[in-house]
Each structure stands twice: as C-alpha cells, then as structure tokens.
Amino acid sequence: xxxxxxxxxxxxxxxxxxxxxxxxxxxxxxxxxxxxxxxxxxxxxxxxxxxxxxxxxxxxxxxxxxxxxxxxxxxxxxxxxxxxxxxxxxxxxxxxxxxxx
Length: 101
Known about the structure:
Layout: H1 4-9, H2 15-18, H3 25-43, H4 46-87, H5 89-92
C-alpha cells in the first residue's frame, strides 16, 4: 500500500475532485440549480444567458478560492493541534524515575 506522502508527491491525490458532500440538502439543491438554469435558458436571450453563465462561473471561481483557503487553514490548524499535543506528551506519561505511577 502506497503512503499518503508518496501519493501526494506523485500528484495522485485530488480530494477536490472526489469529495461529494453527504449533507442531505446537497443533491436537492443541485437539482434546484439545474431546474433554474434550464428555466433561464428557455426564458432569456442567448446573450443574457451567456452573461448569466459568466456570472455563475465567477461565483464558482470565488467560492473555489474560499474553499481552498478554508482547507489550508483547517489543515494548518489540525497540524498545529498535533504539534501541541505531541509537545506536551511527556506531561501525560508518568516518570518512572520520580516514582510517580
């Protein structure tokens, strides 16, 4: 089995492409967006619909940058938590030399 670090180094990890939210609203909201998009495709002129798609693409790009920043922040926070825990581990292990059990 390949390690996570090896997979990361080789560019084999793509969590942004494989994550599907498990929130119960996710699929329902996706269907709603699809239905509204089709409604607007029929009701708007080609030019207006293209502008709406450009707006939507900009919103997706902005959201993607936010999600990336949140991922990095969360990863750093988790790593710092591990560092803090590991740096204090000696406090949790009784010192046999002191006679404390």
